[in-house]
């Protein structure tokens, strides 16, 4: 499980459910819109700061290995234990692909946007409020999406 991606996906799936729900359900979820926008912002921040956190992990791990001469020997079936060919250098942490992070980010912003558009169409918020909420998640409104109200 990749924590940062899973966190974004969890919020994305929740908002996707809201977007396609019955109108009275959307109305209910909209009552907590500030909570949900906050959840989106937290998940986006986790994605945006992933690179910095990864560098912290890698550097702290390497500093410890250098200071302690840490060796790790994985079991080798050929040697029947500690591998004769390995010098025991511990493996560095694995970085989450930036493509996966970008995709998770885009999916989350898109789904939040469509939830807000649905709320606008039900007239739960006016265009000014919609613009403010879209700005909070770093997106803008396509006027085409505002045309038809439910
Ligand atoms: Zn071996």
Describe the protein:
The structure is a single chain. The chain has 150 residues and is an all-alpha fold. The protein has one domain (3-142). It has helices at residues 3-19, 23-30, 33-48, 50-68, 98-121, 127-136, and strands spanning 75-76, 81-82. Strands 1-2 form a two-stranded antiparallel sheet. The longest helix is centred in the C-terminal third of the chain and has 24 residues, at 98-121. It starts with a helix and ends in a 14-residue tail after the last helix. The model has no long low-confidence stretch (mean pLDDT 94). Zinc ion (ZN) is lined by residues 76, 78-79, 83-85.
What is the fold's blueprint, element by element?
Elements: H1 3-19, H2 23-30, H3 33-48, H4 50-68, E1 75-76, E2 81-82, H5 98-121, H6 127-136
Antiparallel strand pairs: 1-2
The structure holds zinc ion.
Zinc ion is lined by residues 76, 78-79, 83-85.
């Amino acid at each position: 499980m990749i924590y940062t991606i899973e966190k974004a996906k969890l919020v994305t799936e929740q908002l996707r459910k809201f977007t396609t729900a019955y109108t009275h359900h959307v109305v209910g979820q909209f009552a907590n819109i500030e909570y949900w926008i906050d959840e989106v912002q937290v998940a986006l921040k986790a994605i945006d700061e992933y690179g910095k956190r990864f560098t912290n992990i890698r550097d702290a791990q390497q500093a410890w290995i250098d200071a302690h001469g840490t060796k790790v020997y994985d079991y080798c079936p050929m040697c029947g234990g500690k591998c004769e060919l390995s010098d025991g250098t511990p493996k560095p942490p694995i970085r989450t692909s930036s493509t996966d992070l970008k995709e998770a980010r885009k999916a989350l912003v898109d789904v939040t946007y469509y939830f807000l558009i649905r709320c606008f169409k039900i007239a739960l918020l006016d265009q000014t409020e919609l613009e403010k909420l879209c700005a909070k998640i770093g997106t803008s409104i396509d006027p085409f999406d505002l045309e038809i109200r439910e």
